[in-house]
# Entry
Amino acid sequence: MTLRHIMRAMLPLLAIFIMASCGGPDHKDPESVAEAALKYYADEDIDGMATLLDPADKEKAEGFKQFKDMLEDMKARGIAKASSKEDRPKFEDYTLKRMKDPYGYDPNKFTNELRVVYDCSKGRDVTVELVKVNDKWYLNSFPQ
# Structure
């Protein structure tokens, strides 16, 4: 076997490795999903936030789409003001404040829901609500 044959055989494996390492957040880690949601929130990327929803929850995905359409319509009609990037807090302005079970249980033994609160140095705190489905964490609602 020549080096050329070996390289041809290795190329698909390398492509698979690269694609696997470029995925989104680790859905087994609630903090990873919450950070991704916060980043999309800071960037006003509703489509990005929608990628963090449970893929089986079509109703929630439709709700995010409707919200995006409504917001774009309001901006186009001048009802909602488009904030400038300089005015909005950036992802780096947020720090993790606490992770808690909304029912007040032991924070080391989360049930299937979780609230992750971030402190913002340039504005108000933001809460990211997550839900656990089949041992994976997903965004439960629009960050607020």
